[in-house]
Amino acid sequence: MTTAVNIAAGQSREQTIAALRQAMAAQSGGTATGATFGLGEALPVPVALENTLAGAVRKGAVSVIEQPGAVLAGLIAEVTKTGHVALVGLSEQGLLSVVELGGKLSNIVCVPDPGMQPLEVIGLLADGVDLVVASLARTPPPSQARPLQARLRTSGCALVFVGQQWPGAEAEISSSVAGVSGIGTGYGRIRAVDYHVSVSGTRFPRRQCRWRVGEQVEQNNVVAFPAQRRS
């Protein structure tokens, strides 16, 4: 199971800090640090996406992903196999996909509602995990983003910001459903989903690929979807 942290309305800063540290210590077996990977090191990604997403999520840096979905679940799953992840402002409903892709829920801290100071919560979590995945109500202005980015560099934690832009993000990841496999005309079940995955960044040119999640099936059983359909 994941470790959940509930930040109550009116909770003091000291209480919030204590709750987050307790959650991280419980997650990592009594220590409040989860620095499994070295500073600047690229975090692991699904094997099938290595050529496309290599270097897209680095320790100490910020990346943006267009929306929650299979690609994000794959990133979380790979990191939790050996490291620790914190989810901020995200529900736990998508964690089934993380498990299906081989992730470890015991290495995840969930903060569904970070309260009135979400950037401070992210900064505190960054001291104890390898990756923070955050979805906030708005994009922070550069004056607030810069101090957090400095803290990420110091702690060696990566941040993936979901659904919005981030000032100075190193990479932007997007995906869309390209097709489903295993269904026939009016019958059958979905056995696999194909995604079109692309990434652009400040350190590398735009890259893209087609990624299949699920069983391998014959190509004539693939039903293609228009590119605008999102995962």
Overall description:
It is built from 6 helices and 10 strands, in the order βααβαβαβαβαβββββ. It is of the alpha/beta class. The protein folds into 2 domains: 3-171, P-loop containing nucleotide triphosphate hydrolases (Rossmann fold), CATH 3.40.50; 173-224, no CATH class. Strands 1, 2, 3, 4, 5, 6, 7, 8, 9 and 10 form a 10-stranded mixed sheet that branches. Strand 8 and strand 9 (207-214) form a beta hairpin. The radius of gyration is 18 Å and the shape is globular. The two termini are 25 Å apart.
Give a short overview.
With 231 residues, this protein is an alpha/beta fold. The chain contains six helices and ten strands; from the N terminus they run βααβαβαβαβαβββββ. The chain folds into two domains: 3-171, 3-Layer(aba) Sandwich (Rossmann fold), CATH 3.40.50; 173-224, no CATH class.
Keywords for this structure?
single chain; 231 residues; alpha/beta; Rossmann fold; 2 domains; ten-stranded mixed β-sheet; 26% helix; globular
Structural class: alpha/beta
Count of separate DSSP helical elements: 6
Total of domains: 2
What do we call the CATH homologous superfamily of the largest domain? P-loop containing nucleotide triphosphate hydrolases
- String of helices and strands: EHHEHEHEHEHEEEEE
Tell me, rounded to a whole number, the average pLDDT.
Answer: 82
Strand content: 25-35%
Q: What is the CA-CA span between the terminal residues? A: 25 Å
Q: Helix content range of the residues, please?
A: 25-40%
Which CATH top level class of the largest domain fits?
Answer: Alpha Beta
* Rg, alpha carbons: 18 Å
CATH topology of the largest domain: Rossmann fold
Please give the number of β-strands.
10
State the shape: globular
How does CATH name the architecture of the largest domain? 3-Layer(aba) Sandwich
Residue stretches low in confidence (pLDDT < 50, at least 5 long) are 217-224
Biggest sheet architecture: 10 strands, mixed
